[in-house]
Amino acid sequence: MGVRNDRLRWQQASGVLRTLHLERLSRRYSHKTVLAGFNLINGGLSIALISLVALVTQQAFIFPSLGATAFILFHVPLAEPASPRNTVCGHLVGALTGLFSLYLFGLHNAPSAMAAGVDLARVGAAALSLGMTGCLMVLLRVPHPPAGATALIVSLGLMPHPAQLPVLMAGVFLLVAQAFVINRLAGIPYPLWRRSSELPLSVPS
């Protein structure tokens, strides 16, 4: 599995370089150096673009768990958790369970845990949100590990208002759209929505 994923990551990086007419870099430097540079630039660019949208609109399009999502979308793009379906549905589940936990424990108008500290109600909200997120992702078959962080971001009071949910999900959609463009430019059959059961985890070199 490791070798096949390494081959896929190399195809992704070299494919983008070829599209940009920079294939000489893949011949000049080692695979490890090229992949490290690709992750540096692509990961930074992904978050920078979303952050710029947040800056222009003054809305919270950017939140911590998107960093983990970006890594998955570009590091193992054909894995099931990296599919648009899992990414979008996973974060949506995390956000909704976080909001549910806030209201259940009466914390929807309370200061965040970062500002006011952690009490028993916050412990309950955090535990319930994460537990429910994992449970629902399994039941709905949409596992996406960074969604657990989204549940905690909401239940800890960092994004506590229902009106923030559309903005949060817009950030997820922006990142998925970029993953689709970058992976397709590299010649990787990144899915429009759901990973086909017949699609291999890697592609031939």
From TrEMBL:
Membrane-crossing residue ranges in chain numbering: 34-55, 88-108, 120-140, 169-186
Keyword terms of this UniProt record: Membrane, Transmembrane, Transmembrane helix
Domain HPP transmembrane region: 38-191
Domain of life: Bacteria
Pfam family, any one: TM_HPP
Record InterPro entries: HPP, TM_HPP
PANTHER family hit by this protein: TRANSMEMBRANE PROTEIN DDB_G0269096-RELATED
Record's protein name: HPP family protein
Species whose genome carries this gene: Marinobacter mobilis
